[in-house]
Amino acid sequence: xxxxxxxxxxxxxxxxxxxxxxxxxxxxxxxxxxxxxxxxxxxxxxxxxxxxxxxxx
Length: 57
Description:
By secondary structure, this protein is mainly alpha-helical. It has helices at about 1-20, 45-50. Helix content is about 45%, strand content about 0%. The longest helix has 21 residues, at about 1-20.
């Protein structure tokens, strides 16, 4: 239908504009969409492994 394409264009344009400003910061899949054992390299594990000693209270 003609009205459906018109509805998608503003949303797609808004997404492109947000991506231009902020970059593509959101993952393509969320943790609930991935396999349970699958981890991304951007997980918190790096931060936990490299936490400064004064944060170990």
